[in-house]
Inverse folding.
């Protein structure tokens, strides 16, 4: 929501908020805005769920033999 003051500021703070890196003042500002802005609250939830998905995806192991098949496809150019 570019050009909409409080939403722009909240967007600037969003990743710091998700990473828990904000000062107490920034934290209060972000939480106050998220409490009253449905758009930013939905954006926060999306980013939070995306981070969980990425974290879980990175932890999953490939099935046995898949890496060998991928290597074979890469070297044969299929």
């Amino acid at each position: 929501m570019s050009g909409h003051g409080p939403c722009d500021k909240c967007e600037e703070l969003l990743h710091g908020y998700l990473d828990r890196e904000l000062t107490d003042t920034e934290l209060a500002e972000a939480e106050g805005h998220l409490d009253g802005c449905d758009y930013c609250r939905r954006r926060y939830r999306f980013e939070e769920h995306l981070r969980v998905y990425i974290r879980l995806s990175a932890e999953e192991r490939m099935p046995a033999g898949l890496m060998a098949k991928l290597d074979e496809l890469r070297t044969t150019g299929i």
